[in-house]
Amino acid sequence: MVSLITSSKAQKKIAENMRDLRLEKGFTQEGLSKRSGVSLSSLRKFEQKGAISLESFFKLAMVLGNLERFIEATKPSGNNFSSIDDVLNNKENKKPERGWRK
Fold this sequence. Notes:
Layout (H helix, E strand, L loop, with lengths): L6 H18 L4 H8 L3 H10 L4 H11 L2 H7 L10 H5 L14
């Protein structure tokens, strides 16, 4: 699949989104740390740099109520294109041809 974002930018954006969700739900870093079982230092490092273990990430997502969304996001989709040519050659996108029948 073609990606237009680097992994480090994706990590930082996910960390930013999770921080915004934490604030929206009214959690302090200390409160979320206690509820999730993720150390305060790991949570701070995640929010600043985007670095965290998968297990800790899942714990945070569970407390914030969006673990299911991440699970759904990893399900395979029907159309996995690896290039623009794949998109253009996709039969689902082609319009039926019009013309005279013989």
